[in-house]
Structure formats: structure tokens, C-alpha cells
């Protein structure tokens, strides 16, 4: 177990492509950190620099207080698990796990103890005599995890380790990985582009875009207090609805308005708008914070339902405001149907406000 620190870590490919740019991060001992972002945002590049598989252009990698930026990979005491969980097909599960330990010339009885210990941790004790061809995808991935765990790394690095599994198994393995992490307490960096995977596993999420960190925070931080439009749009399904609105001040009241929506700003958050000295603003409202109501007065818009997507536990309702599709997550009952007219209000406390130019979240809400 160890701490990790990245200081201005940057990687330039060729002349002008930055795979990662000025990445700064402090990871605590035993933390489960997830790098999250769209394809090409620099997650893998950053992970590979931590592992020592990618040369660093600028900056530092510090593991347990020691500068390892130029140390070769095997001396860093990190273990990496890849998307294509390369288990050796000609070796039994036992030998797959034992192999790296044998390379280290560890005594046989000690190897035996560790293999059994990690096999139990990832629940493959019954499979030790089998060959990988006799295993399911999920079991093979567990072998790869066990092998990575066996060497007792200081830091566990995982690059989309679940993405080759089918959807159901992925969800199951998430829970298992989290439980394994709980048992081992190993400092872990996990890369994914799947936001629900990130939300369900991370102690803290590092949201990346174009090689840079956009926000670092707990799943609740990035969801409820998204730092900017990008993060608010990337995290959450269905995604956040964004509206560019005019700020209309009238007789002490403030309204946020566009052609379709009129939101009266509650007293409690007026000061946020007062401080913001522009005429336009971006409002972000998550689909579950748009509420269907009978109360004409509190409605921010009234519209015909375009489609209803039943999800069992809830229903996703889409309406069209101009050329924008707006999504509302409503409870499973009462049932709604297409063409029905609904009145919609919002949970003002959960409304997100962003600067129209910088797209950063306004302070104070
Ligand atoms: N060997 C390379 N040569 C040139 N450019 C590269 C190289 N490897 C990565 N890049 C570029 O660096 C950027 C970051 O790539 P990286 O693989 O880290 O992204 P990622 O977030 O892991 O994406 P994905 O989810 O698709 O794996 C991308 O623009 C990519 O095209």
C-alpha cells in the first residue's frame, strides 16, 4: 500500500499532441481512484506514465514519497491489469498466479500460501487446477486480478479491466472489485469511460478531457457539484439538460428565461445571480430534478410529451422545446403517454448555474 502523487505530469506525442497536460493529483493510501473521461482524454497515457510504460515529457511521479519518474517499471512495485486480461493459456490458474512469484525466487511454501490467499480473495479457490480455456470471461478476469494481487503491489493500476465482459457480468464484477478493494485496502487507480462504473466504485473520481483534469471529487461531488458544463454533461444518465437563458430583472424579482422556459429565481439563490454580472447564463437541470406537477403557478413550462421510455423502476419522458429534446425522469407511477400535455417544475435547490463564457459553475449554489 502506498500514496501516489503526480506533479505537473505531462506527455507530448510528436510535436504538438499532448496526451496529458499538467496533471496534478494526490492519492491517499488505500484510496480507490477512477480516471474517467471520453475516448482520447488521456486516461491511459496518465496510467502508463504511473506504471513506467510511457516516458514522461514533463513533471513527476512520486510513489510513497519517492520520485520514481525515471525508474523502470518493475522497480516501481505497481501491478497493472489490462482490458485484454492476458492470462497464459498453457498454464493452470494456479501456475498463472504463481508465475510472477516464482520469477522472484520466492520459496515454494510461501508461494503456495499467497496463491491460496489471493484465490480466496477473488473467489476462484475451486478453479486452481483448471486451464484458462475452461473458464468464463469473468473467471479469467478474476485470475488476472489474483495474479496482480499476488505480487502485493504498492499500487494497483487497472485499464478498463471490465470492458471485455458482457453487461451483466460487468455490473457483478464492479461489486466484486469493490469488495476485493475493501478486503485488500490496496491503493488503486482504475481507468474507465463508463460513468456509472466510475460512480459505483470510486472513492474519488478524476474527470479528464483533452489531457487535462476537469474535476477531482467524490461521486457525490462530481454529480451534485459539477465544476463545469462538461462534467455536468458527462456524468449522469440521461444527461443533464442545459438551457441558455436570459437573466431578466424586474421589480426585485429575477427570472431566467428563454423562448420556452421561465424560472423564477428563489430568494435563497438570488445573491448568486446578483454577483454574476452578465445577461446570459447556462442553467443545468438533471432529468430527475424536473418534476411533473398539477400546479400551473409553479410550472416552468408546459409541453406535449414526445415519447415515454419505461424503465421499470422509473420512466424517462422526453419533450421537445424548440429544437432541443429535454428529458425528465419520473417515478414509475402514474404512467404517462405520448401526446399528453404535462406541466413541469423543478427542484430549485438542485439547479446548476454556469457562466455563459467560461462554462464554470457559479459559486454559492
Ligand atoms: N503513441 C501515440 N502517438 C501519438 N498520439 C498518441 C499516442 N498514444 C496516445 N495518443 C494521443 O494522446 C491522447 C490521449 O490518449 P489516451 O490513450 O491516453 O486516451 P484515453 O483517455 O485512454 O482514451 P481511450 O478511452 O480511448 O483509451 C489521444 O489524443 C491520443 O490520440
Automatic annotation (TrEMBL):
SUPFAM superfamilies in alphabetical order: MOP-like, P-loop containing nucleoside triphosphate hydrolases
Annotated SMART domains: AAA
Family annotation (InterPro entries): AAA+_ATPase (IPR003593), ABC_transporter-like_ATP-bd (IPR003439), ABC_transporter-like_CS (IPR017871), ABC_transpr_MalK-like (IPR015855), ABC_transpr_MalK/UgpC-like (IPR047641), Mo/tungstate-bd_C_term_dom (IPR008995), NA-bd_OB-fold (IPR012340), OB_MalK-like (IPR040582)
Key words, A-Z: ATP-binding, Nucleotide-binding, Transport
Gene3D superfamilies on file: 2.40.50.100, Nucleic acid-binding proteins, P-loop containing nucleotide triphosphate hydrolases
GO cellular component: ATP-binding cassette (ABC) transporter complex, substrate-binding subunit-containing
Highest taxon of source: Bacteria
Entry's Gene Ontology molecular function annotations: ABC-type transporter activity; ATP binding; ATP hydrolysis activity
Pfam families listed in its UniProt record: ABC_tran (PF00005), OB_MalK (PF17912)
GO biological process: carbohydrate transport
Domain named ABC transporter: residues: 4-235
PANTHER family: MALTODEXTRIN IMPORT ATP-BINDING PROTEIN MSMX, OSMOPROTECTIVE COMPOUNDS UPTAKE ATP-BINDING PROTEIN GGTA
Protein name per UniProt: Sugar ABC transporter, ATP-binding protein
Organism in which the protein naturally occurs: Thermosipho africanus (strain TCF52B)
Amino acid at each position: 500500500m502506498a500514496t501516489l502523487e503526480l506533479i505537473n505530469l505531462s506527455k507530448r506525442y510528436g510535436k504538438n499532441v499532448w496526451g496529458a497536460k499538467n496533471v496534478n493529483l494526490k492519492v491517499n493510501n488505500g484510496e480507490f481512484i477512477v480516471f474517467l473521461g471520453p475516448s482520447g482524454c488521456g486516461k491511459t497515457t496518465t496510467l502508463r506514465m504511473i506504471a513506467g510504460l510511457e516516458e514522461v515529457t514533463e513533471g513527476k511521479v512520486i510513489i510513497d514519497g519517492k520520485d520514481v519518474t525515471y525508474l523502470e517499471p518493475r522497480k516501481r512495485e505497481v501491478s497493472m491489469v489490462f482490458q485484454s486480461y492476458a492470462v497464459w493459456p498453457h498454464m493452470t490458474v494456479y501456475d498463472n498466479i504463481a508465475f510472477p512469484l516464482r520469477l522472484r525466487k520466492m520459496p515454494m511454501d510461501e508461494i503456495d500460501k499467497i496463491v491460496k490467499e489471493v484465490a480466496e480473495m477473488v473467489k476462484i479457490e475451486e478453479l486452481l487446477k483448471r486451464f484458462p480455456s475452461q473458464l468464463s470471461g469473468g473467471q479469467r478476469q478474476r485470475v488476472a486480478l489474483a495474479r496482480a494481487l499476488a505480487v502485493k503491489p504498492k499500487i494497483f493500476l487497472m485499464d478498463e479491466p471490465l470492458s471485455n465482459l458482457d453487461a451483466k457480468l460487468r455490473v457483478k464484477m464492479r461489486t466484486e472489485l469493490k469488495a476485493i478493494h475493501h478486503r485488500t485496502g490496496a491503493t488503486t487507480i482504475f481507468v474507465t469511460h463508463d460513468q456509472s462504473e466510475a460512480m459505483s466504485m470510486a472513492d474519488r473520481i478524476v474527470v479528464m478531457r483533452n489531457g487535462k483534469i476537469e474535476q477531482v471529487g467524490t461521486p457525490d461531488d462530481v454529480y451534485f457539484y459539477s465544476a463545469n458544463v462538461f462534467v455536468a454533461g458527462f456524468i449522469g444518465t440521461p444527461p443533464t439538460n442545459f438551457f441558455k437563458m436570459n437573466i431578466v430583472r424586474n421589480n426585485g424579482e429575477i427570472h431566467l428565461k428563454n423562448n420556452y422556459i421561465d424560472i423564477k429565481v428563489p430568494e435563497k439563490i438570488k445573491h448568486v445571480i446578483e454577483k454574476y454580472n452578465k445577461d446570459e447564463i447556462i442553467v443545468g437541470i438533471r432529468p430527475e430534478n424536473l418534476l411533473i406537477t398539477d400546479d400551473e403557478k409553479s410550472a416552468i413550462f408546459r409541453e406535449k410529451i414526445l415519447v415515454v421510455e419505461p424503465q421499470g423502476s422509473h420512466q424517462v419522458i422526453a419533450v421537445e422545446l424548440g429544437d432541443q429534446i429535454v428529458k425528465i425522469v419520473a417515478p414509475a407511477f402514474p404512467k404517462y403517454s405520448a401526446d399528453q400535455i404535462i406541466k413541469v417544475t423543478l427542484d430549485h435547490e438542485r439547479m446548476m448555474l454556469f457562466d455563459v463564457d467560461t462554462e464554470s459553475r457559479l459559486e454559492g449554489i
